[in-house]
Design goal:
With about 200 residues, the protein is α+β, with helices and mostly antiparallel strands. It has 5 helices and 5 strands. Strand 4 and strand 5 form a beta hairpin.
Length: about 200
């Protein structure tokens, strides 16, 4: 007969106690593993983040809502874009033939939708360091490279102070081409165009 413990409770067999301890260790280990995985993957609510708050890219410029990549019918008016210059929205497809030119909104949106990054400046010639920055990240501009969405396109836009970098739904304004944010912006967003592409 099993001896009685204080309070009248009976002692459990040692094998049952060890089994319960192992089960408890297994459950705690599993809970910790799930917690660590959830933490490292951005949390359980990662898909419900506010637009523009996607980890390190959230600090690179301003994110605008995606206004789509619809193709305008001939004669149709362009919509009211939510940024100047626009970073997304309906447009007429228009290729860029060479870098350094002044781009229309249609050329700009065609380039951004494909995944290119467009870097604009307001001076007659690119500011110091801008050409070398573009050359250090991507191959020299060509219409084929731009069609593939892999070009860093330098373009003039009168009255822009400093440098303006644009990607699909993104815009970054910096004072000079040597600002480290500009390089980071181009590296992060090059190749990320509209969803339809």
């Amino acid at each position: 007969m099993t001896p009685a413990l204080s309070g009248g409770a009976r002692r459990r067999p040692p094998s049952l106690v060890r089994w319960l301890e192992r089960l408890l260790i297994l459950i705690v280990s599993l809970a910790i593993s799930v917690g660590v995985i959830a933490l490292l993957s951005g949390g359980l609510l990662a898909g419900r983040d506010s637009p523009g708050l996607y980890g390190p890219t959230g600090q690179l410029g301003v994110q605008f809502r995606d206004q789509g990549d619809a193709i305008l019918a001939p004669g149709a008016r362009a919509p009211a874009y939510d940024s100047v210059p626009p970073t997304s929205g309906a447009h007429r497809p228009a290729r860029i033939v060479h870098a350094g030119s002044t781009l229309s909104d249609d050329q700009l949106l065609t380039a951004l939708a494909a995944g290119n990054v467009v870097v604009m400046y307001g001076t007659k010639h690119p500011p110091p360091g801008l050409r070398s920055l573009a050359a250090s990240i991507a191959a020299p501009f060509s219409p084929a490279l731009a069609s593939a969405g892999q070009a860093v396109i330098l373009a003039r836009r009168p009255a822009i102070p400093g440098v303006l970098a644009l990607a699909w739904t993104r815009l970054l304004h910096v004072r000079s081409a040597t600002d480290p944010q500009l390089r980071s912006f181009v590296l992060v967003f090059l190749g990320q165009g509209a969803r339809r592409h």
